[in-house]
Amino acid sequence: MAKSKLEYIWLDGNLPTQQMRSKTKVVDNFSGKVEDAPIWSFDGSSTMQAAGNSSDLLLKPVNIFPDPDRSNGYLVMAEVLNPDGTPHATNARATIHDDDNDFWFGFEQEYVLWDLDHHTPYGFPAPGYYPPPQGPFYCSVGAEYNVGRNMIEKHLDHCIEAGINIEGINSEVMKGQWEYQIFAKGAKEAGDQIWIGRYLMERVGEEFNVRINLDPKPVLGDWNGSGMHANFSNSVLRTCGDKAIYEKICSAFGTEEAIQRHIAVYGENNDMRLTGRHETQAIDKFSFGVSDRGASIRIPIATVENGYKGWLEDRRPASNADPYKVAAAIVDTVKGAKI
Predict the structure, then answer these.
(1) Which DSSP letter does residue 51 get?
(2) CA nearest 167: which of 177, 158, 159?
């Protein structure tokens, strides 16, 4: 009788920055299909999601990926449900209004490899000393500037083997900082893939005793922060061919209500990153522009050259933002523009 290892992955109640939790269920003769993964339960009182006298919560499998690091293994992304089957208050995936998968997302996940022995970014000198100013580290080559490549390459291979639609990787502006890009059709699918990508990176970090730091400003001073730029489109943006429609959608993001709603879910401590410097717009301002990396919303030059048929990039989400919440906010704002 064949046995499979199903790693159930869910988000806890550590608000506003939820953490991943996971545990393994061994099942017989598993088909590999998400609909055949059983609903499971866990102790919500240990994850800040329930009281001790009524602690059972449900894990509903919603997506599944081959586990590249285990034989007969699968990674099961799960939503948290109340005992009556309704979405738990911490279940942001259930708030996405994109049932027809009309919205496509490309998330650019930045992060910093964090040396747990020295409590500094991986590759930084001993505390009290600093590497050269940022500049030579972006897309760098060579041991002096590029650190952690062995970990990043392993993560890339794991994502590909798991069926994640990872589209690229590069070292970033700060030493020890990296990025990977994931694209998916459907807001929920994109969120699932980012969370599984994060999970796989954490697993690689465990092997090297390196923390995957998603703080939006891991090092104070003249260093870039870490973001999770959200590239998005729907059928209107992909086909309209109309500059006025693009500007109307961008303007919908700039209302006071929309700004507050988006910033509320775009990551904890994001004010440390969105300062108006280091390729960001200030958190208390809003702007959009063609090819402007200092704007809140960037209209890519490729979209313009294609006759305003393409996508937009929201540059505000922080590296620690929940992609489900980011996607839900973007979907609702675009739909609210009533194009």
Answers:
(1) B
(2) 159
DSSP annotation of 5:
E
Q: How does pLDDT run across 34-43, given as a tens digit for each residue?
A: 999 999 999 9
Residues whose CB falls within 8 Å of the CB of residue 45, separated by 6 or more in sequence, listed in order:
51, 52, 55
Count of beta carbons in the 10 Å neighbourhood of residue 48: 13
In the structure encoding, which two tokens stand for residue 117, read together? Answer: 């022995």
Q: Residue 26: enclosing H or E segment and its boundaries?
A: strand 20-28
How many residues are listed for the chain in this entry? 339
Give pTM, 2 decimals.
0.96
Task: Tell me the per-residue pLDDT of 180-230, one tens digit each, with 9 for 90 and over.
Answer: 999 999 999 999 999 999 999 999 999 999 999 999 999 888 888 999 999
Write down the number of H helices and E strands in the chain: 7, 14
165 closest CA partner among 214, 109, 111, 215:
109
**Residue 217 DSSP label:** S
CA torsion 319-321-324-330 (nearest 10°) is -90
Domains of the chain in sequence order: 3-91 (3.10.20.70), 104-336 (3.30.590.10)
